[in-house]
Specification:
By secondary structure, the protein is of the alpha+beta class. The protein has one domain: Roll (Nuclear Transport Factor 2, Chain: A), CATH 3.10.450.50. It is about 30% helix and about 40% strand. Strands 2-1-6-5-4-3 form a six-stranded mixed beta sheet, with helices on one face. The protein starts with 8 loop residues before the first helix and ends with a strand. The model has no long low-confidence stretch (mean pLDDT about 95). It comes from Mixta gaviniae. This is DUF3225 domain-containing protein. Pfam families: AtzH-like. InterPro entries: AtzH-like, NTF2-like_dom_sf.
């Protein structure tokens, strides 16, 4: 691995912008943008706090059925690391008002012909 290719400034800026766009869409329940930012493939995986979703169809169905209330959250300890020009990992913790649990989210992003897309994601919750 060429360590000089880790967190190339232009690539890091692109992935950070995509991550922030995803976060805005998530708390705003913008299902169209959330769908856009996931890889449209049956190999896409999203392991959630209470669900295991395999394939874009399952992820879409989950998003369509999810309640739109209570989505606001505060991020902390966000780490975005890019490897070369086509792959990145985004990890963050989140908290929600009224909850004592700490959420954790990790996403693997790949640059595809249509742009940066989440190819795998995991969300979990733990007691503070």
């Amino acid at each position: 691995m060429n360590y000089e290719a880790i967190n190339l400034p232009a690539v890091l800026a692109e992935v950070t912008a995509a991550f922030q766009r995803y976060e805005q869409a998530l708390v705003g329940n913008d299902i169209a943008v959330l769908d856009e930012l996931f890889w449209h493939d049956e190999r896409t995986v999203r392991l959630g706090a209470g669900e295991n979703l395999y394939g874009i169809a399952a992820i879409r169905a989950f998003r369509a059925a999810r309640p739109a209330a209570g989505l606001d959250r505060q991020l902390r300890n966000t780490v975005i690391t890019t490897f070369g020009t086509d792959f990145a990992v985004c990890s963050t913790e989140f908290t929600r008002v009224g909850s004592e649990r700490i959420g954790r989210q990790q996403q693997s992003w790949a640059r595809l012909p249509e742009g940066w897309r989440i190819v795998a994601a995991q969300v979990s919750l733990m007691t503070a």
